[in-house]
TrEMBL record:
Entry superkingdom: Eukaryota
UniProt source species: Carya illinoinensis
This protein's UniProt keywords: Metal-binding, Nucleus, Zinc, Zinc-finger
Lineage: Eukaryota, Viridiplantae, Streptophyta, Embryophyta, Tracheophyta
Function: Putative transcription activator involved in regulating light control of development.
Region of interest (Disordered), ranges: 1-29, 733-758
Family, similarity comment: Belongs to the FHY3/FAR1 family.
SWIM-type domain residues: 581-617
Gene Ontology annotations for the cellular component aspect, listed alphabetically: nucleus
Molecular function (Gene Ontology), one example: zinc ion binding
Protein name: Protein FAR1-RELATED SEQUENCE
Biased composition (Basic residues): 740-750
Residue ranges that the Swiss-Prot or TrEMBL entry lists as coiled coil: none
Location(s), subcellular: Nucleus
Length: 781
C-alpha cells in the first residue's frame, strides 16, 4: 500500500474549488434510510440532483474487486491511495474528473451495521446507469429531455480503513467521448454558485440588473465565461430558490414586519394597511418623514396615477408626487391598492391626508377616472381637480374617421386646445371646428366639452399648477420603477425598491442644492433684476426666469388703453402681429397681470410683463409679491415641528456596512499587489488563512460569551413576535390576485396611423406595382 501524498491532494482540490459549494454532497448517517439489511435508493433522473444508493453492511470483510491503476501518475486515482476525510476524496475525484473531461456523482454508500457510520462511498461518472423506463412512460408537458446516462463504468470507490479512507476500486475507461478541461466547466456536476458570487448576485438583483448582465459582471470578475463556475440558469435557480423561501415566510407578513421595523427606527414613518375578513392583506399606504416634510413645502400641487402594475398580485401602484424647488419630481407617499373602486380611493385619500397632517392640496391632477373623481369630490371638496391633458387627448377610436378623412383636423384641433389664450378664443375655435367637420352631434366630444373646466388650458391658466398639465410626474416614477420591478415582484420587495427610488430622488435634490450654492449663474443681460433673481431662485427656476427676461427683448409693448388707474398694453413679437397679449399695469405699484397668466400658472414672471416693466424702467429688483417661496433657494428653511427631521438612512461610523466597505477598499489595493506575482500571491494567501483562523477563534469565544444574552433576549423576541401578529386577528395572509381596469383587447380601436394602407412597391423597370426590380417578371423572361 502506498503512503499518502498530501501536497497532491491539496493541489488538485484547489482546481475543483469552483462549484463545490452547491454540488458537493455531505455523506453521512443522515443520508441513509432506516435500519435494514440492505436498501437501494433508485437513481434520480438527470434533471434532479445526483442520485445516491445507500446500503447497510451485513458482513464484515466483504470482498471487493480491486483493479490496479495502469497509470502511476500522482494526479490520477489508484488503488491504495489514502485520504484523511471523505470530503478530500470527493474533491480529489472531482478535480480529476474536471481535468479528464467528465462529471462525477456519488452513486453508492454503505453504513456499518453496528454503529451505522459511513464505511464505503462509490463515485461514478455522471453518465453511469440508464434512465428508468417509468421516467420514459410518464406524460410530459414539454418534450422529453435528451438522455445522458449511457451505462458508463468509470468508478472510484473508497473504503474506511481504520482512521483513513483508502481507494479500493478504480476504473478509468469511459464508453463516451471526453471533453476538454475548459468545456467541463459547463457540466452540472462542476457548476455551482459560490458564497461570494451569491452576495454579488443578490446585490445586483436588488438593483434591477437582469440575469444576462449579472453573468456579464461575473465573467468580468472571473476573467472569462469559462472561469465563472456557473451559467445563467444557475443564477436564475438561485434567485428562484430565494424567492420560494420568502413565499414560505409569507409575503404580506414580511411587509407588515418591515413597516413595524421602519416605524421603530424612524418616528416620522407612517403606514396603514387594510385586512379583509379572511385575514388577507388589502390596500396599504406608507410614507416616511421626508415625504411628509416635502409635502408641507411643496404640496400645493399633487399628481397621482394608478396605471402601473408592479407586483405579482397585479395591485396598482399609486404614487403621490409633486415638484420641488429644483423642478424635480418629489414623492409625498405611496400606496398599493387591491382594486380601483371609489371606496379604495376614498380610503387612500383620507389616509394620505391624515398622514400629511390634515392639509389638502390646492390642485390635484389625475387621470380621467370616475372612481377617482368621486373620491376627490368627497374627501377633497375644496381642491381644484384637474384632469391629465395627455390622457384626455388619447382619442383615436373616437375621431379616427375624421383623422383619416381630413388632414388638417389634427393641426386645427391642437391649436384650439393648446394655443388659445382666453376662454372666448377657445369657445370660438371649438364651435368652428365642430361645425366645419360635422362633429356637433359627437357624444364623446360633447362629454369632453361639458368637463372643459377640468382640462382645457384656457380655463386653467389662472390656477397654480407649478407648470404641470399632466400626470407626467407620477409616470416618471413609473418609468423609474420599470427597471427595478416586474410582474413577478412581491410587495415586500417592492417597498425596498420604493425606498431606493426615494433615496435616489433626494440625493439628486442634494446635488442641485450644492450646485446652486457653490456656483454662480452666467448673466445674459445688463439688468439688475437678473442678478437679484439669481440670488433668490434655485438654478433651474432662475434659468426659466432668465429665459423669459432675455426673450422679453424680442417683444414690443404698445399702450392700448386705460382701466381706471391701470394702464393696458398690447404686447406682440417684433416680427409678428399676432398673438397679442394684454398686460394690465397698476400705476401705484409694480403689479401687472398678463393674459397668458404664466405667473398664476407657473409662479414665475412672463416675458410680456417683463417687457412692459422694461419700458417703464422698473427692472432693478424683483418685486417681493412676484417671488414664490417654493421656487427659492431657502424653500425648505422653515421648520415643521410636527414632523421629526430625517435625512433618510444615515449610517453611523460603527455601522457594519461602513466597516465592510472600508475593508473592501483596503483589500482591493492588497489584492491588486498580490496578483502581480506568484510569490506575492502565495504570501497573501497564507496571511489570509492565518487571519481567517484567528477570526474563527474570536467568533467562538464571542459566541460563548453572547450565548447567555441570546437566551435572555429569546423570550423578549418571542413576546414581540406574538405582539406583532396579535395586532391582527390572525397571521396576515397574502392578497389575492385581482382583475384590473382596462378595456378588452378585442374592443381596442387602432390609431389612424395603424390603419393606413401601406404604400405598394413599384418596380423601376416595368413600372408595375406589387414587386421590385430584383424579382421583376420581365427580367426573368
Amino acid at each position: 500500500m502506498m503512503s499518502r501524498n498530501y501536497p497532491e491532494v491539496e493541489d488538485v482540490s484547489s482546481d475543483a474549488e469552483i462549484g463545490v459549494e452547491q454540488n458537493d454532497m455531505n455523506v453521512g448517517v443522515g443520508d441513509c434510510v432506516n435500519e435494514g439489511d440492505e436498501v437501494n435508493v433508485e437513481e434520480r433522473d438527470q434533471a434532479v440532483e445526483d442520485g445516491v444508493n445507500v446500503e447497510v453492511e451485513v458482513e464484515d470483510g466483504d470482498e471487493v474487486n480491486k483493479i490496479s491503476s495502469s497509470s502511476s501518475s500522482l494526479i490520477e486515482p489508484f488503488v491504495g491511495k489514502e485520504f484523511d476525510e471523505v470530503e478530500d476524496a470527493q474533491a480529489f475525484y472531482k478535480a480529476y474528473a474536471r481535468r479528464t473531461g467528465f462529471a462525477m456523482r456519488t452513486n453508492h454508500t454503505r453504513l456499518s451495521k453496528d454503529d451505522r457510520k459511513l464505511i464505503l462511498v462509490e463515485y461514478v461518472c455522471s453518465r453511469e446507469g440508464f434512465r428508468r423506463e417509468s421516467r420514459k412512460q410518464i406524460e410530459r408537458r414539454i418534450p422529453e429531455p435528451a438522455e445522458t446516462k449511457i451505462g458508463c463504468k468509470a468508478t472510484m470507490c473508497i473504503k474506511k480503513d481504520c482512521q483513513k479512507w483508502t481507494v479500493c476500486k478504480f476504473i478509468r475507461e469511459h464508453n463516451h467521448e471526453l471533453l476538454t478541461p475548459r468545456s467541463t466547466s459547463l457540466f452540472r456536476g462542476h457548476r455551482g454558485v459560490t458564497r461570494v458570487q451569491k452576495k454579488l448576485i443578490l446585490t445586483l438583483n436588488e438593483s434591477g440588473v437582469p440575469t444576462r448582465k449579472i453573468m456579464s459582471v461575473l465573467s468580468k470578475e472571473s476573467g472569462g465565461d469559462f472561469n465563472v463556475g456557473c451559467i445563467g440558469k444557475d443564477v436564475e435557480n438561485f434567485l428562484g430558490n430565494k424567492r420560494r423561501k420568502l413565499f414560505e415566510e409569507g409575503d404580506a407578513q414580511r411587509l407588515y414586519a418591515y413597516f413595524l421595523d421602519r416605524q421603530c427606527k424612524e418616528p416620522g414613518f407612517v403606514y396603514s394597511m387594510q385586512v379583509d375578513e379572511n385575514g388577507c392583506m388589502g390596500s396599504c399606504f406608507w410614507a416616511d418623514a421626508r415625504s411628509s416634510a416635502a409635502y408641507q413645502y411643496f404640496g400645493d400641487v399633487v399628481t397621482f396615477d394608478a396605471t402601473y402594475l408592479t407586483n405579482i398580485y397585479k395591485m396598482p401602484f399609486v404614487p403621490f408626487s409633486g415638484v420641488n424647488h429644483h423642478h424635480q419630481t418629489i414623492m409625498f407617499g405611496c400606496a398599493l391598492l387591491v382594486n380601483e373602486t371609489a371606496e379604495s380611493y376614498i380610503w387612500l385619500l383620507r389616509t394620505w391626508q391624515e398622514a400629511m397632517l390634515g392639509r389638502a392640496p390646492s390642485t390635484i391632477i389625475t387621470d380621467d377616472d370616475k372612481a377617482m373623481a368621486k373620491a376627490i369630490s368627497e374627501v377633497l371638496p375644496n381642491t381644484t381637480h384637474r384632469l391629465c391633458l395627455w390622457h384626455i387627448l388619447q382619442f383615436p377610436e373616437h375621431l379616427a374617421h375624421v383623422y383619416n378623412k381630413f388632414s388638417d383636423f389634427q393641426k386645427e384641433f391642437h391649436h384650439c386646445i393648446h394655443e388659445t389664450i382666453t376662454v372666448d378664443e377657445f369657445e370660438q375655435e371649438w364651435s368652428s371646428i365642430l361645425a366645419k367637420y360635422g362633429l356637433v352631434d359627437n357624444d364623446w366630444l360633447q362629454n369632453l366639452y361639458n368637463r372643459r373646466d377640468k382640462w382645457v388650458p384656457a380655463y386653467l391658466r389662472t390656477t397654480f399648477c407649478a407648470g404641470m398639465s399632466t400626470t407626467q410626474r407620477s409616470e416618471s416614477m413609473n418609468k423609474f420603477f420599470k427597471d427595478y420591478v416586474r410582474s413577478s415582484t412581491m410587495v415586500s420587495d417592492f417597498v425596498h425598491q420604493y425606498e431606493k427610488a426615494l433615496d435616489a430622488r433626494y440625493f439628486k435634490e442634494k446635488e442641485k442644492d450644492v450646485r446652486t450654492k457653490s456656483t454662480r449663474a452666467i448673466m445674459k443681460t445688463l439688468w439688475k433684476i437678473e442678478k437679484d433673481a439669481a440670488s433668490i431662485y434655485t438654478r433651474k427656476s432662475f434659468m426659466i426666469f432668465q429665459d423669459e427676461l432675455f426673450n422679453s427683448q424680442r417683444y414690443i409693448p404698445t399702450k392700448v388703453g386705460k382701466d381706471g388707474e391701470s394702464k393696458i398694453y398690447g404686447v406682440t413679437r417684433n416680427d409678428k402681429e399676432y398673438p397679442i397679449y394684454q398686460v394690465t399695469l397698476d400705476s401705484g405699484e409694480v403689479k401687472a397681470i398678463c393674459t397668458c397668466h404664466m405667473f398664476e400658472f407657473v409662479g414665475i414672471l412672463c416675458r410680456h410683463i417683463l417687457c412692459v416693466l422694461g419700458k417703464k424702467s422698473k427692472l432693478d429688483l424683483l418685486p417681493h409679491h412676484y417671488i414664490l417661496e417654493r421656487w427659492t433657494i431657502n424653500a425648505k428653511s422653515r421648520t415643521i415641528l410636527d414632523i421629526p427631521t430625517s435625512d433618510g438612512h444615515v449610517m453611523r461610523q460603527d455601522d457594519p456596512m461602513l466597516r465592510k466597505s472600508k475593508l473592501m477598499m483596503q483589500f482591493y489595493d492588497i489584492a491588486e499587489l498580490g496578483s502581480q506575482s506568484i510569490q506575492k500571491c502565495q504570501h497573501l494567501s497564507l496571511a489570509l488563512d492565518k487571519v481567517h483562523k484567528e477570526f474563527l477563534s474570536m467568533e467562538q469565544v464571542e459566541g460563548e460569551k453572547n450565548l447567555e444574552d441570546e437566551n435572555m433576549s429569546l423570550n423578549d423576541s418571542q413576546m414581540f413576535k406574538s405582539q406583532v401578529v396579535s395586532n391582527f386577528s390572525q397571521v396576515l395572509q397574502d392578497p389575492p390576485r385581482v382583475a384590473t381596469k382596462g378595456r378588452p383587447k378585442s374592443l381596442r380601436a387602432k390609431n389612424p396611423k395603424e390603419t393606413q394602407t401601406a404604400k405598394k412597391r413599384r418596380c423601376s423597370i416595368c413600372k408595375i406595382e406589387g414587386h421590385a426590380k430584383n424579382n421583376c417578371p420581365s427580367v426573368r423572361l
